[in-house]
Amino acid sequence: MPQQPAPLPPTLGQFFSAAEARALGVSPGRLRAADLESPFRGARVVRAPDATGDADHPATGTAEREQARREHLLARARAFVTVMPPYAFFTGITAAAIWGAPLPRSSARNPGGEPLDVAVFAPDRPLRTSGVRGYQTTPSLTAVVRHRGLPVACPASTWASLGRVFSVSQLVVVGDAMVHQHRRRNGDRGGVTAPLATLDDLAAAAAGRRVGVARLRQALPHIRVGSMSPGETDLRLALTAGGLPEPALDFDLADAAGRRFGWTEIAYPRWRVLVEYEGDHHRTDRAQWHRDIAKHARCRDLGWDVVRVTSADLYPRPLAAVARVRQALARAGWRP
Prior knowledge:
This protein is an alpha+beta fold and 336 residues long. The protein has helices at 18-23, 62-80, 92-98, 155-161, 168-179, 199-205, 213-219, 230-241, 280-284, 286-301, 311-314, 319-331; strands at residues 15-17, 36-37, 43-46, 89-90, 116-121, 132-137, 144-147, 150-153, 248-254, 260-268, 273-278, 305-310. The protein contains twelve helices and twelve strands. The strands form four sheets. It has a four-stranded mixed beta sheet with strand order 9-10-11-12, with helices on both faces. A three-stranded antiparallel beta sheet has the order 1-3-2. Strands 4-5-6 form a three-stranded mixed beta sheet. A hairpin with a 4-residue loop joins β10 (260-268) and β11 (273-278). α2 (62-80) crosses α3, α3 runs antiparallel to α4 (155-161) and α4 (155-161) packs across α6. It is elongated and about 75 Å long. Residues 51-60 have low confidence and may be disordered.
């Protein structure tokens, strides 16, 4: 039976540098043991017992794959920060993952081999390290804060840094997520978690000269407060691109006496048409499924036409989704 490696000092935690471990008396041989990974030179990570990963399994949904990718990037960032120079910080896709922002579909890569985006301020030179994409910026373009214990570009600066790699529509998706105002459990707006950024913050971040600034400025007028998921943003953009009116977002639903009984993602109050994007959680969460059925029945009783849109209607081409909403609006009297 293989001999178990000696216990590590408990102060090291899951992520640590080899230098830190040696200072605590850990031998070089122990640092080469099979229960440790070395994702970056000089960094060590204690392997999780079930670290097999199934994010690429065909049965894994898009949301699960995106979440797995975010968690993998966060874990790699926690490992790299143990050996990262004190003047460096995370930016780009890595920063977006740290903030929990959407990582749009077409930017997806193999999470096992995805490098980290790390920036420094001029005149320091960009890092040239295996597994890292190095960038150079200036304090006038990027504000740095600490989040989850990591040095990272602030949310608005993170959004702006994505202009070099994301399309205009992807920047709108991330921008919507940055300015989203959460609701409380009772449905009141102004949740305990404040938006990551405001529209003014994003506008200020897009004001400087940087790579991708043209895409940032194209995206900015299309960012809205009220979109709750990338699918909802993509649906809204498809509807307006298809010539339909600009919808209301995160719209409160009320009965004849004015009592709120819920809210919907996309609405056309003038024509009493509701549009709901049914993400995976609407299907897999049984309680959510029952709430949706009751809400939609009540809406129809009050004279609303409810259009339910799934990812199959929206991706890879949104023609079916746009056509169904167009038909509902036309039934209600809308004309182009």
